[in-house]
Amino acid sequence: MTGADWLDSLTADGVALGRVSTAERVADFVRTRVMEGDLPPGTRLSEEALRTALGVARNTLREAFRLLTRERLLVHEHSRGVFVRTPDAADIVDLYAARRVIEGGALTAWPTAPEEKRQAVRDAVRFQRESARAERWSDVATGNVRFHLAITGLAGSARLDEEVRRLLAEMRLVFHHMGDQREFYENYVQLNRDILELADGGAVSEAEEALRKYFDVAEQHLLRRMRAHG
């Protein structure tokens, strides 16, 4: 999905929002678009176009913008409007610090998590591998998000699920600056599979350690790429 296509598709979403829509639900729609890669950093969000597409009141949309600004996904520039935020190196370090705690802790719940939660991790890995074989690298990126959401889901906490959705949306903004998607994501397809195989084989402690190392590698990879691109 490119250009204004994401905005056109919101018209259908507006039907789902209906008259009982809230700022939180509008924010979730925009957050999801960020997480799926439809809104790159620097995108200007037209208040009028969004109000029309979603069928919501001006005050509702502005409250949604305020929520997303607090989540570091949007930024308001005086006299210019609201834009999708561009993360920096400090954001990367902070994001990975939070993810190590949340996802590492969630992965330890693998042995006692409901089977459907474990299956969600397997499904995410399968989707990512199939997308890589088909060279659909944008879908590989989406599969990576699904994998980490599914890892968090093992904990069975709605609060952690919500927090990680916010973190991963911000991460997707970081990934937009990493250049060629294949070059960036290709190695992580196998790393995700390795973590799954360890957990599925009962080696949960080893899977947790592999995830920690994965985060160390990914963090340094992103920081190097960000510095190289200025």
- What does the oligomeric state look like here? single chain
Domain count: 2
Distance between the termini: 27 Å
Query: What structural class is derived from the secondary structure elements?
Result: mainly alpha
Number of strands: 3
Fill in the keyword field for this structure:
globular, mainly alpha, 2 domains, 10 helices, 3 strands, Four Helix Bundle (Hemerythrin (Met), subunit A)
How would you characterize the overall build of this protein?
This protein is mainly α. It has 2 domains: 21-84, Orthogonal Bundle (Arc Repressor Mutant, subunit A); 89-229, GntR ligand-binding domain-like (Four Helix Bundle (Hemerythrin (Met), subunit A), Up-down Bundle). Helix content is 72%, strand content 4%. It is built from 10 helices and 3 strands. Strand 2 and strand 3 (81-84) form a beta hairpin. Helix 1 (5-17) packs across helix 3, helix 5 packs antiparallel against helix 10 and helix 7 (137-153) packs parallel to helix 9 (181-200). The radius of gyration is 18 Å and the shape is globular. The two termini are 27 Å apart. The mean pLDDT is 89. Residues 20-87 form the HTH gntR-type domain.
Short description:
This protein has 230 residues and is mostly helical. The chain has helices at 5-17, 23-35, 47-54, 58-70, 89-107, 115-133, 137-153, 158-175, 181-200, 204-228; strands at 44-45, 74-77, 81-84.
Topology, pairings included?
Blueprint: H1 5-17, H2 23-35, E1 44-45, H3 47-54, H4 58-70, E2 74-77, E3 81-84, H5 89-107, H6 115-133, H7 137-153, H8 158-175, H9 181-200, H10 204-228
Helix pairs in contact: 1-3, 2-4, 2-8, 5-7, 5-8, 5-10, 6-7, 6-9, 7-8, 7-9, 9-10
